[in-house]
Design goal:
Blueprint: H1 8-31, H2 46-54, E1 75-76, E2 85-86
Antiparallel strand pairs: 1-2
Length: about 110
């Protein structure tokens, strides 16, 4: 004779496995590096906003580590995981960002 009913032990084991598997994505998300954006230029004058656009500022450099704001001569870093500043482009500047005026630190 086969038993079709689940035992309490089997049900409890299945519930624990489901709970553990369900919490993995949440735990892994906590391990990700915090992402932040430096694209809000709402407080800029029209002229500064136009210059930012003309220099094609973006939060992520197409040149990766080779050329980004953190290794640009015009960039001043902000606090950890926060936007910095640039002497040419006004507004918040991402350390991994880039614009057409990038120049290597000397």
């Amino acid at each position: 004779m086969t038993k079709n009913n689940l035992s309490r032990r089997s049900l409890l084991r299945g519930t624990v496995h489901l709970a553990v598997l369900g919490s993995v994505p949440v735990l892994l998300q906590g391990c990700k590096k915090a992402e932040f954006s430096c694209t809000d230029a709402s407080g800029l004058s029209e002229q500064d906003a136009e210059l930012r656009k003309a220099l094609e500022y973006r939060d992520r450099s197409p040149h990766d580590e080779a050329k980004n704001c953190s290794n640009c001569a015009f960039y001043a870093a902000g606090a950890k995981d926060q936007c910095g500043k640039c002497t040419l482009v006004q507004g918040p500047i991402h350390p991994l960002g880039y614009c057409n005026s990038w120049a290597a630190k000397g």
